[in-house]
Sequence to fold (461 residues):
Amino acid sequence: MTAYDAIIIGTGQAGPALARRLAGAGMKVAVVERGRFGGTCVNTGCTPTKTLVASAYAVHMARRGAFYGFGAGDITVDMKRVKARKDEVAGASTRGVERSLRTLENCTVHTGHARLRSAREVEVGNEVLQADKIFLNVGGRATTSGISGLDQVPFLTNSSMVDVDFVPRHLLVVGGSYIGLEFGQMYRRFGSEVTIVEMGPRLISREDEDVSAAVAAFLGAEGVSLRTGAKCLHAARRGDEIVLSLDCTEGAPEVAGSHLLVAIGRRPNTDDLGLDRAGVKTNERGYIEVDDELRTSVPGIWALGDCNGRGAFTHTAWNDYEIVAANLLDGDKRRVSDRISAYALYTDPPLGRAGMSEAEVLRSGRPALVARVAMEDVSRAFEKGETQGFMKLLVDAQSQQILGAAFLGSSGDEVVHCVLDAMYAKAPYTILQRAMHIHPTVAEFIPTMLGDLAPLDPARP
Fold:
C-alpha cells in the first residue's frame, strides 16, 4: 500500500488542475488515468468536434464564395486530411495534459482502472493507494438505451464519430440536441445526406420554441432532413443499409441510411468504480450525489465533473475544480448554487445561452420584461452575410436584474458573456443599457435592446 495525501481519479477538466493546486500546496498527490489523458473534452468532445466544425464552416464559406464576390472552383472535401488536422489539434492537448502531470512535482501518475476499495483506499491493478482525500473525476460516456434492434446494427457515438475519415453517403442521426445537431450540420457540409431523428416534438427541447424553430429552419435550408416526434424507434439491417423504423406524426414510417450516429444522451462512468464498497451514494441514473461544495455522502470523498450530474460541460467541470480548491486551500466559501447556467450550441450560427429561458421565466410567475431583435437587423451580421437567428433578453421587472439571454446568431457564443458578467455582478440592466459598445459589433445591440424592453406576454406562442 502506498500512502498519499490525495488521490485524483480521472484526468478530465477538473482533475489535472486540482492536482496542480494540491501538489503546489505541498501535498503528495496520486493521479489515476485508465485511458487517454484529458478526458472527454480533449479527446472526443469540445476540442475535436470544434476543430471539425471549423473545417465544415470553411467548406461552407468557400461554397458561398459567389455571394461574397469570388469563385473558389469545385469544392472537394478530403476527410482524411480533415481528420488529420483534428488529430493534431486534439493530440497536442492530450499530450500536453499527460506531460504536465508526469512532470509535476509531488505528483505520481498511475495508469489503469481505479476502483474504490474502501473510503480511503483505491485499487489500481495490483496496487493499493491510500489517502484521506479522494477526488472522483471519472466523466461520462454516450448512452444507447431506448432503441430496439441497436445490438443488430453497426452504429457510431460521439467518441467513434470523431475518428471517421470518410464522408458517409447518408448519415442517420438519432438525437436532436447538441451532439446530434453539431455532427449533423457538419457532415451535411462535408457532403453527406443527413437525416436527424428526434423523439421529442421539436429539436433541443430544453430551449424555447422560437430557438428550436430557428435552428430547424437553418438546418432545413442547408438540406438536413428533420424527423421529430419519433416514437418506438427500431433499427435493422437491410442489405448494406441501416433502416430506422419510427412512428412520427408526419412523414414516412421508416428512413434508411448508410451510417447511424446515436446521440441521445450521456451516462456517468460510475458503474465499475466500487462506490458501494466505500458507501458513496448515487442517484437512480448513476450520478454521484454531492452537496453544494461537491462533497459526496462519504467524508473525505468529492466528485467533480460530469459524474456528479451538476453540469455536463467542460466549463462546469472547471468550475467544480475552482469550488473545491477554493474551499480546501483558500479558506473561501464557494458553492455550486452560486453559478449561473451558461452554455453554447456550436451549430452555425451558434447559440449562446445564459440564465433562464423564456419558458422558465413564465413558469416562475414573476413580472418580467423581454427584448428581441432579429439578426438580419444587426448591421455586423448583415455585413458578414450571416443574418440567421435572433437575440433575446429577459429582465426582472422589479429588481431590474437580467434573468436570461439567448443569442442565436453570428458570434452569439461570445456575445452572451457581456450579459453573463452583468448577471454575476447582480447589476441592474440599466448599467448595460447605458454602456457604450463598439460599432460595428453584434454586442453593440445589447444596450439598444435593453432600451426597448416590453412586458413579457404569457400568451405569446
